[in-house]
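Input sequence (780 aa), recorded before submission:
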Amino acid sequence: MSKLFRLLAFAGCCIIVTAATAQEDYILKGKVVDSATMEPVSGATIRCTAAGCSCGCISAQNGAFEIRCSRSADFMVKLVGYQPRFVHGSGDMVILLAPSGTLLQEVVVTANRGEQVRRAEAPIAIATVNAKTIQETKAISADQLLNKVSGVHMVSLGNEQHQMSIRQPVTTRSLFLYLEDGIPIRTSGLFNHNALLEMNLAATRSIEVIKGPSSSLYGSEAIGGVVNFITMSPSAVPLLKVSLQANDIGYRKAELAASVSGSRTGVVLSGYHAEKRNGYPGYSDFRKGVVTLRADHRFSARTTLVTSFTWLNYYSEMSGSVDSTMYASRSFRNLHSFTYRAVYALRLRATLVQQWSETDKTSVTAATRNNQIAQNPAYRVRDDYRKSGGVYVGKKDLAHGEINDNSFHSLSLVAQHRKTFKWKKSVLLAGVNIETTPSGYAARYIRITRDTVSRRYIAYQSTDSILTDYHTQLDNYAAFLAFECSPVEQLRVVASLRNDYFRYRFTNHLKPSAYSGSRDTATGFYRFSPKIGLTWNFSKRFGVYANYSEGFVPPQVTELFTGVKVPDLRASVFYNYECGGWAERLRGRLSVDFSVYHLAGSNEVISVKLDDGTQENRNAGKTLHRGIELGVNSTPFKNFNLRLSGTCSDHVFIRHEEKGVNYSGKKMNNAPAVVCNVEGWYKPALLKGFRFGAEWQHVGKYFADAQNSAEYPGYDVIHLRAGYEYRGLGIWLNLMNATNAYYATNASKSGYGYSYQLADKRNLGIGLQYDFAKLLKPKQ
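Predicted structure, token format:
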């Protein structure tokens, strides 16, 4: 009996040891990674699929996870915004999650200042250009990406220079706010319509566009829209990509992206050098070098520091536009031979994020921007020979111009705290923004020699005549508050309020005059900006929203201090009413979003002609902007995706009398009533890695002048793209303007005549990319 007892006891011990060992038979660990960007995915749920098993975990901030389970080696990985994935196996692996193609699961961060939220919970018109679209388009400028968004019409002026239209006519006015990771890339009061040429597309993970006023969260100039370029964070696995591309009209580009991450620190370096030589049209060479270095460091599971540095050096010959005779004859000869634009920019930003608890989070961002724009601008060149009083006067071989330099150096601090409550799923966000910006502007007169036969401007002579030389100190102090809650399950209410104070201090280094500017002076502006909206999701696949918002634009430095007298100006204010919705049908194969808006502008600054013949800037303008925006994404059959983005709008001068001419009641110029972009991609299953896409851009007719006396018929242009990827190797062909359409990206009429900005003729681009990191073949 004793031997039998000892045998049974030994067997029991073996069973216990075996059972204990079996508890660790299935160990799954590794990282969850975004398949498009290779960035770590935090917050993903990894759970065992066996019946009755409760094993599971959530991926950490660096994407890492570990599960110990005794019952199954089958797991499901899920996260809002990504397609669910089933994983079988154990050991160490990298789990790649593909972003979801469904609209309602799309995650955005710009809607509430950096916190992730589902698109279906944001009561605004917001759209995303995701990483997949950026990678497949192989764009050489931002307009080739942003024009895919409904309601956005970005006009290319060549060499990444541009104008913008979002719920506004195509304009150079300060009605759009451009952000990088939620921080404005330029300071308020010093708007530049070419600001997006300072962006680094190689560092961009995605682009989010809020359409309509967002001053309640982001401050001034967020009127027509907010465009937020979101940069790549360090990848979860080592990354090294190099690419080269070129086209047959002189463009060349070399691009690099590299990233590595340790247990606490991750670094990503990205940038490119681009240039164009001997291209179309003539005298249009340019070069651009831009680099972004970003480092993310985790002090602990709750404390993170993100530091980003961007350097830019840009130079472009300024070819200018063509007149009506040259445009009609298609015999373009560039009249300029020395005009240019040079931009130098540095941006440094550090964001410290502290997650105090599950309900409290604080972030503090300190940023500095150093920017300089030097120009010999073509738009400042004026012939001396002109018509005056019915007769021509002046010298035919003389023209006038200027060389100017505009620079600023800003320091800003943004601090915000976010607190969540269990009551009605409430969220409270409060923050402050402080910014100080010293800025300077100087311009000197140049005497230009003009060839009377060819009409070309062949040389210029610098003079000692200083036109302008001043310094401004711009300070902005703001506080903002946002609250959101769900009174009932389907309803989400969001309200926000911001108070801004601007102070301008102007110092003129010259004697006040019409050219040099006003006397030394100081002025300031206050503005409250409210916004309230709600979303109602009838089901998981259908929802609507409505909002009311106000946006404002403070007077720009050039509007305040040009001329001897400082005008008594206030901020221009825009009142916006809009509603919209979204729907998904056919099991994710069809999604639709739409918005309808009514935007009224008041106190807009215009130049008014006084009784004594002089002119003065006043808050005398009033405009109305109405429109419908529509976006459709569908998969009509397997491996084929179709997207449609379109807008139908109406822009009218309600009250507008400028320089003695009354435009009230007329259509605003440079405002196409219809803009449409349609794109389809086919990826055959039999040839994995191959893609073929076609894109059609339609811009409808519009008036070229505010008098509505001249109309431009608009244009249609088609682009074709094809690419193939095999393991780490990628190759692509882009045939832009495939039909070789002859058109102008922008047409206008003024007292000097017609002006046309020529579009690129048909051109073929080829590119080659290699991803060295894919040689590592991480277990998936």
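Checked by second reader. The radius of gyration is 29 Å.
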